Amino acid sequence: RRGDAPLGLVPTMGALHEGHKSLIVRATGECGAAVVSIFVNPAQFAAGEDYDTYPRTYHADLEACREMGVSCVYAPRANAMYPGGYDTWVDVPGLGAPLCGARRQGHFRGVATVVLKLLAACLPHRAYFGEKDYQQLVLIRRMTHDLDLGVEIVPCPIVREDDGVALSSRNAYLSADERSRARAISTALFDAKKKVAAGERLSAAIIQACVDELEKAGSRVDYVEIVEPATLERVEMINGAARMAVAAYIGETRLIDNILLEPDDEP
Hints:
Rossmann fold, globular, alpha/beta, Pantoate--beta-alanine Ligase, Chain: A,domain 2, 3-stranded antiparallel beta sheet, single chain
């Protein structure tokens, strides 16, 4: 920390894209100094997931951070974060159980633990998280509140390609055909938003329409759910703001996306 100027942290796993860069722009613009962490966290990957193949573009990431005016890049090694005998974990069971937590056992325990360690190492006033990983955002906000960490968690909007696809480091796995089919996820979400604005309130009907749209495009649906934005509890009738979350496989690549549903939106 430098004097009274706020310090901002942007936690990442590297493979920086325009979504990450939007967080960095916020941090450098709003804080006196900004730290970007780059760490592919083994604790949030289950056996058989893509830890070994996750995109790693460290030198390009460093150059991007330098060009964007980042004050410091914190890139610890796994054996420094989790040395031999490491046995302390953070769990937020209520928020970590639904959605991705129900499919990726232990994932959010790994996320919460590594974020707490990053906050302890960097001591930021603010930490910036994208809304694309919405469950992660809500969980980290709860953790920092419950543990009285004194860190402001700053949510940042999803950044999308021109065709609506949410930016993700895992998009690099997609073939040209799969990338084209990935558009179905955001299209289905925006169609759901239009349905709610037009008066549809029954979650089951909106979810089924989304599933049908995804399957028609050749996606394998992992889940489609509509939840209360703060608690992530399922919503049966949309009488206020709700968050619709999707996880689907395009080929072998699992992608997630979400959107805010608001009954008062103009159709």
